[in-house]
UniProtKB/TrEMBL annotation:
The gene is pstB. It comes from the Bacteria. Keywords: ATP-binding, Nucleotide-binding, Phosphate transport, Transport. The lineage of its organism: Bacteria, Pseudomonadati, Pseudomonadota, Alphaproteobacteria, Hyphomicrobiales. InterPro entries: AAA+_ATPase, ABC_transporter-like_ATP-bd, ABC_transporter-like_CS, P-loop_NTPase, PstB-like. This is Phosphate ABC transporter ATP binding subunit. NCBIfam families: 3a0107s01c2.
Amino acid sequence: MNIMTEAGVEQKLSSGTNAPSIKMKGEKVSVHYGEKRALFDVDLDVREHQVTALIGPSGCGKSTFLRCLNRMNDTIDIARVSGKITLDDEDVYDPKIDVVELRARVGMVFQKPNPFPKSIYENVAYGPRIHGLARSKAELDGIVESSLKKAGLFNEVKDRLLESGTGLSGGQQQRLCIARAIAVSPEVILMDEPCSALDPIATARVEELIDELRQNYTIVIVTHSMQQAARVSQRTAMFHLGYLVEEGATDKMFTNPDDKRTQDYITGRFG
Ligand SMILES: Nc1ncnc2c1ncn2[C@@H]1O[C@H](COP(=O)(O)OP(=O)(O)OP(=O)(O)O)[C@@H](O)[C@H]1O
């Protein structure tokens, strides 16, 4: 069943409840790096068309959990993941899953903008081309343009699509990376501290963009900024020493958390 939220966003409802449907689900997710355990039995749902913020002090496992969602931890030799993670009820760790396809469905934007040393056009066109999403040059041009528009960058770059992506400002580069993620039509976008290398104006622009993007995508963001989590997310999950301390509606988490560790962290008493 679909409803319109107050923000005009059409959301699917799980039958019989008022909650948006669960897009991804983590059950008893644990991660070891060699002998060291970095996550302990984390149960966390990611709701469709919402922004879920992962917060907590440095080293508490936020990025580790984020990377489990699209199996980026597979690229770390010593990382071992156990438990279960589903995307639309499909087990993402099932050996039958094509990891390249999974990472197109669950895209990622990193802390430091990392455009390829190629043109703006090529940065966005690369993914759709390798995934065979365009049948003609005109179709590819269309995907590049619409992805840049969705990332709020098109007007700034439309006259220099063939210039290098690395020549853009930091904030523009990050929006280019968001356009690159969008170009392969992901369902979920993971963002690992996407604004930490940006100035306040570029940060505000990316935060506005995140709010717009949730109409079409489900977003999980790791952030060290409490203000950012409060501004952009609907749900917040607090991690500490590898454990999920609590998870809930962002308003509640920032005004009346259940756990003292959350209270201490959001009021700056540790972290
Ligand atoms: N590639 C790795 N190899 C070994 N240990 C790692 C690796 N990545 C993370 N860890 C360890 O796992 C734990 C959790 O790290 P993680 O980066 O997930 O935390 P975080 O909450 O995202 O931290 P930060 O906020 O500082 O980015 C830390 O103790 C970290 O040292």
